[in-house]
Amino acid sequence: METKNPRILVLVCSTRPNALGPAVGQWLTETLAPDAERLGVDLVTQSIGDLGLPFLDEEEHPSTGVHHHEHTRRWSRIVDGADGFVVVTPEYNYGMPATLKNALDYLGPEWAWKPVGFVSYGHTSAGTRAVQHAKQVVTTLRLVPLGATVALRIADAMREDRLAPEARHADAAQGLLAELVRVAHALAPMREREHAASVEGPLPGSYARRLGPDDAPEVTVLQRACWMEEALANDTLAIPALHESPADVRAWLADWHTTGLWRDGRLLGMVRTRRTGADLHVGRLAVAPDLRGLGVGRWLLRRAESEGEEGGRIVLSTGAASHRNLALYRRQGYVPLPDAPEEGVVDLAKPVAA
């Protein structure tokens, strides 16, 4: 899974003029700023009133992910880019505001497998009935509501027309954020697996996606596990993959097109490609040692080969004593090239299939 900071959207729901919601949202983000830095998350405040969402006006069902209006596309990008949500909501007549229900109804897949916590405010019930109402809706969208909540009774939270929640409210907010971050990390494989950019992998529950610089820690670990065996087989430690730091890996991940195969948050395998002229260079084909013999390497190699252009070649290299690799490549139609540039290395190639 990517190691970038989780993005937590603080969604302020009330759009009534002079509403208390913006003050509650500001108190929340200021209170949680030190914890957010310590936990490595980005808190981003968004007011529903600033989105310009009319009552749902899209022709297609939200589950399709097809959005015709720019206000919907913008809202979709905001939600899709978030890893979790904190909803700051008042209670209106035993329920959540219509603005929140409308904002939820606009989208479908963008919400799935993300945690949501609630900070409510109100009079007698401190907004808790709005939260119970909202939980019935968010679970239908496959959002995962937290057990931790913050409930502000307005009479207790105001000091001479100024919002001043008690210390227990701040403690509750810190607990909410900590729980939200834990659940966001736990749900990350579910989100990635169902993302539009992911494809189903060859093993049950596995999926593939493009790797980026933020995946460098997992790639570094996989390389060390895989190329140590190659070092033993070829009787040499002069293998670049064994000596690269996470910073080195991060640098080449920015330049190569790299596909990673994942399952339950674990990087199972990878392959990278880069084009030079008509040739497609394939490298770093790696499969976790405990998954060898299950067809993962062949599947990754075919994914890489699909990027070749007709009329060109696919070129790759392996150690001269890496007999398992050589057997795989020969079965896939690769033939050794003469005059390898390095001693102990075999270059192989095959034409791109029409």
At a glance:
This protein is 38% helix and 24% strand. The chain has 354 residues and is an alpha/beta fold.
Describe, in plain words, how this protein is organized in 3D.
The chain is α/β, with parallel strands linked by helices. 38% of the residues lie in helices and 24% in strands. It is built from 11 helices and 13 strands. Helix 7 crosses helix 9. The longest helix is centred in the middle third of the chain and has 28 residues.
Which assembly state applies to the chains in this document?
single chain
Question: Mean pLDDT score, rounded?
Answer: 93
Strand content: 15-25%
Largest sheet: 8 strands, mixed
Number of extended strands: 13
Span between termini:
35 Å
Helix count equals 11
List low-pLDDT spans. Answer: none
- What best-fitting shape do the alpha-carbon axes yield? elongated
| Strand order, largest beta sheet | 6-7-8-9-10-11-13-12
The rounded Rg comes to 26 Å
Following the backbone from N to C, one meets helices and strands in this order, namely: EHEHEHEHEHHEEHHHEEEHEHEE
Task: Sum up the structure in keywords.
alpha/beta; five-stranded parallel sheet; 11 helices; elongated; 38% helix; eight-stranded mixed sheet; 354 residues
